[in-house]
Design brief:
Strand order of the largest sheet of chain A: 1-4
Largest interface: A-B, 47 and 43 residues
Number of helices of chain B: 14
Structural class of chain B: mainly alpha
Strand content of chain A: under 5%
Helix content of chain A: over 70%
Oligomer: heterodimer
Order of helices and strands of chain B: HHHHHEHHHHHEHHHH
Number of strands of chain A: 4
Strand content of chain B: under 5%
Structural class of chain A: mainly alpha
Order of helices and strands of chain A: HHHHEEEHHHEHHH
Shape of chain B: globular
Strand order of the largest sheet of chain B: 1-2
Distance between the termini of chain B: 15 Å
Distance between the termini of chain A: 55 Å
Largest sheet of chain B: 2 strands, antiparallel
Largest sheet of chain A: 2 strands, antiparallel
Shape of chain A: globular
Chain lengths: 307, 337
């Protein structure tokens, strides 16, 4: 029983990472109908930005120290990472996706471009920074609590709380604000929306800012929990988060959130009861099963095709 | 005359390649580049059936290649060599020449059956959801292979090199080159016959509009099964050849990066263009070999080139036209049907 709760705790943490990344996928997909395959690598870039920001603020590259305490460094690192990662995401959108979109290219070509952007981010990172793994500095004191036999660290609780908080904020933005309304409108009908005087380009940029900054936050949280950074860390987790978003029903942020946690639970439970090498096999088989029973995902709506 | 140009050209090419490699005029490195070119042609043109002609977005092609590679090398090791896992050879090495094509066929059939794994869920789902199914199936196949320790698990599997040696013992010829040539020609032939037939036009109808195709009495489910099985079966064929050329397979070689490579070839050539796929596979192989000294930077330059290509010529080298559409005069010499 205790190990079950322990596993649920682990699953919630894993699910938080998946959910944060899946939310980014989902936002971009909902607005642009574009599978942003570079998103997993933006998460990786976010983790690296977090690393360099944190080490810079701790005074590792300069002679003089900023004299900040570790918690203060963390407080500064979170917004800086989110802003810089959002910058990366917007740059990719501006340089690679928007010219194609303006030309009215088939959306498949944009998907291929996204895939290639991901590859470039990975390998450019490898070429520039080298293959050596970096370890993230400990910014917060790890304290372990035990309640009823279930142990958890403050980091784990913070990660889970952050995921729920971010979801709540995002949900409010999407459903209550004018920007969210514009986003939903674009996803409803992209061609009629400019006629209503809604600046599509601005809304798209805002979408990318939101999505990429979430990936940056996920990168920071991930590298604090698992403090080893390497260029390929984003690829696998990105593909998985994408699958989670689709299983939840891509285009609906509730779906992405639930799907992320679902995948987290599946993986942790598989590891708990089977050898850990079976993780991908069983988790993906179950996802395939879900998709063949409910082809549009858990929250997805079937789109009617007009002829 | 029209009907014989292509066979004569192919026979000349075949004789030239075999003669040159037999006579020692091209060294082993160039031979292996030519062999990988053939394998890449099979891979890109077979993915073109699904991604180009049918207009779906499949990212799991490397998985089927892995199935073909593993099944055919298991068969050839089981039947022909003394192995620690499978015990002594079932047949004596003289049969290598007969057994090897059967092993390739076995790999292709197994990969085609694995294609059903994607085909059946694809009945109800479309574009983006299908991408997931294919990625998931790629991971399922890869993970299954990694979990079977009898075939080496993540360490990989070897021993099929001796099959090639046995074939060369029977008759002294560059057998891998011959088989790859035959398989490449067979692939191009079968795909060309398929997509230009009335039956195969159903696939192109699915690309244009699935619902309309259904109404026009195209059995879309059946077409999808046929297309996926043909595509994955040919990928399995390429996988079997790939395994026997290298003499070693491991599941890590068939990941997302391999799929990306194949997709790059398809989109570089143009969706729904067979000649485009062939041309881009040749070009891409040469390009990758030329950039080998750059090591990791190669993987920055190749995607960058593709992005630039997408901006200036998004339809790829050939678009969805064949060579005969660009040079109409070729029709006098060659029949494109």
């Amino acid at each position: 029983m205790e190990s079950l709760f322990q596993n649920i705790m682990n699953a919630l943490q894993w699910g938080s990472f998946y959910s944060l990344i899946a939310l980014g996928y989902c936002l971009v997909y909902g607005v642009l109908r574009l599978i942003n395959f570079a998103h997993g690598d933006i998460f990786m870039v976010g983790a690296f930005i977090a690393y360099f920001t944190a080490t810079f603020l701790m005074g590792m590259y300069t002679d003089f120290s900023f004299g900040l305490s570790n918690p203060m460094v963390l407080v500064l690192t979170i917004p800086i990472t989110m802003i810089l990662t959002a910058g990366v995401g917007v740059t990719i959108e501006r340089v690679a996706y928007r010219p194609l979109r303006n030309k009215g290219a088939h959306r498949l070509y944009v998907v291929i471009t996204a895939l290639m952007c991901g590859l470039i981010l990975q390998h450019a990172n490898l070429a520039v920074l080298g293959a050596s793994r970096r370890s993230f500095p400990d910014l917060v004191e790890r304290s372990v609590y035990t309640i009823g036999g279930v142990t958890f660290t403050n980091l784990r609780v913070a990660t889970i709380l952050a995921a729920f908080l971010v979801f709540a904020m995002l949900y409010t933005i999407i459903s209550k604000t004018r920007i969210g309304m514009a986003m939903r409108a674009i996803s409803y009908d992209r061609f009629a929306i400019p006629l209503m005087g809604i600046p599509v380009a601005t809304i798209v940029v805002i979408t990318f800012v939101l999505g990429s900054s979430l990936a940056g936050l996920a990168g920071l949280l991930y590298s604090m929990s698992y403090p080893v950074l390497e260029p390929y860390m984003g690829a696998m987790i990105g593909w998985k988060a994408f699958i989670a978003a689709v299983v939840g029903g891509i285009g609906d942020i509730r779906g992405a959130f639930v799907g992320g946690f679902l995948l987290g639970f599946l993986e942790i439970m598989v590891v708990a009861f089977f050898p850990s090498t079976f993780r991908d096999l069983i988790a993906f088989s179950i996802l395939l099963l879900i998709l063949s029973i409910k082809p549009t995902g858990i929250f997805g709506m079937a789109q009617t095709t007009k002829i | 005359m029209q009907r014989f140009t292509v066979p004569i050209l192919l026979a000349a090419l075949f004789a030239g390649l075999i003669g040159m490699s037999q006579g020692g005029m091209i060294d082993l490195y160039i031979q292996s580049v030519i062999m990988f070119m053939g394998i890449n042609i099979i891979l890109s043109s077979s993915l073109n059936i699904v991604n180009g002609y049918m207009g779906e977005f499949s990212c799991g092609h490397a998985g089927f290649m892995a199935v073909g590679a593993y099944v055919s090398s298991l068969l050839s090791v089981w039947l022909l060599t003394d192995d620690r896992v499978f015990g002594p050879a079932v047949l004596s090495p003289e049969f290598a020449l007969v057994i090897f094509p059967l092993c390739l066929l076995g790999g292709a059939v197994a990969a085609a059956l694995a294609g059903l794994l994607v085909a059946i869920p694809s009945f109800k789902t479309r574009d983006d959801y299908l991408a997931i199914i294919t990625i998931a199936s790629l991971y399922i196949i890869k993970s299954t292979i990694e979990n079977i320790s009898a075939i080496g698990g993540p360490r990989g599997f070897m021993g099929m090199r001796s099959t090639v040696v046995f074939m060369e013992d029977v008759i002294e010829l560059p057998w891998m080159m011959i088989w790859i040539f035959i398989c490449t020609v067979f692939t191009i032939w079968i795909i060309r016959r398929f997509v230009s037939s009335t039956y195969g036009k159903g696939i192109i109808a699915i690309r244009q509009d699935e619902v309309a195709a259904e109404i026009m009495s195209v059995n879309t489910n059946k077409m999808k099964v046929v297309a996926f099985m043909l595509s994955s079966g040919l990928a399995g064929l390429a996988g079997g050849l790939f395994a026997h050329v290298l003499g070693y397979v491991n599941p890590g070689a068939f990941g997302i990066l391999k799929t990306t490579e194949i997709m790059v070839m398809v989109y570089l050539g143009g969706m729904g263009s067979l000649t485009g796929s062939v041309l881009s596979a040749v070009l891409f192989t040469l390009l990758m070999e030329a950039m080998r000294p750059l090591q990791i930077i190669k993987w920055v330059i190749v995607p960058l080139m593709l992005i630039i290509l997408m901006h200036f010529r998004p339809e790829g080298i050939m678009g969805n036209r064949e060579l005969s559409d660009i040079f109409p005069r070729l029709r006098r010499w060659i029949q494109f049907k």
